[in-house]
Amino acid sequence: MDIMSNQVIPVDPPYPVLIGQGLLCHAGELIREILGDCRIALITDSNVASLYLETVTRSLETSGYPVSSWVIPAGEASKNMGELSLVLEFLAESGLDRTDAVIALGGGVVGDLAGFAAGCYLRGIRYVQLPTTLLAAVDSSVGGKCAVDLAEGKNLAGLFHQPSAVLCDIDCLATLPWLVLADGMAEAVKTAILSGDELFALCRRPAEPSVLREIIDRCLTFKGEVVAADPREQGLRRILNLGHTPAHAIELCSGYTVSHGQAVAMGLVIMARAGEVLGWSEPGLTGKICAVLEHHQLPVRAPFQAAQLAAAALRDKKRKGTQITLVIPVRIGEWVEKTIPVTELEAVFAAGLEEFHDCSN
Q1: How far apart are CA 149 and CA 143, in angstroms?
Q2: Fold of 190-352
Q3: Pairwise CA distance, residues 71 & 64, whole Å
């Protein structure tokens, strides 16, 4: 086991984020230092179960934990109220009480579902995130936002429930298909646009293990600072929604056949291009963003019209009455929030969807 970074997310209560290699094989001993004695319910998906469920279960049992496990079907389609109900029934049937804990072993869908279940079972029990995808590692495993999708839109039912710990084993990244790794890079690029040139430059490099470790570390440092300042998204934390208003609309319009990372990539370009067209962003910003996204083979053009995306986005939880707030990138490391009437959203999206003849320049 090699722990390369040990951060603390300074919320109330604070919790550790460990980044390293071989952490899953030692999950039991690491978790025992944090949770002490309890029973554990391990939630994972059908893809991850075949890779890591036995390893993590063995480690937990070796450290003296009674473990029960639940495997959900892999994919965004499992992030729904029906699957949440099944997980809650599993926790009850396993006899968990308020001293026990849930472990989320997987990507963003597993983390959201398991965190949501832990947050409402018995009015809240502890949980630990073991992210196995880059997207979960750089973003969703930290911060405590847990949600499921409804027919009307993405993440419309959820709660804030901070984990007790996050153990990020970068060895898991070696098993990811390239498209899944690229999904995570989209969220990393989002964070880089917000945080500044150093992380943005890292995102332009080949996705080698040493580079990915540093990207994860820097992304979580930035997100940890934002979450600590605004745990429940009442102010500063809204900046982490950069690109996500159009991204969630793209996912909904596609029937969730477009992955979250791909949708975020398109959403980042839409907001940057809209910023340039409307005079809010520096000239050339869209080209910089497109270049790094295309470097990781991410899409930069959305397959939907502005009217379709606006109609879908108006179901988004970020809408407040007749207004909606958008995060606009001004330049790398600088952003602005624009609150506009919902009647103007289609025009903003239309500006963002304008043909950009040479995206790489």
Answers
A1: 18
A2: Dehydroquinate synthase-like, alpha domain (1.20.1090)
A3: 22
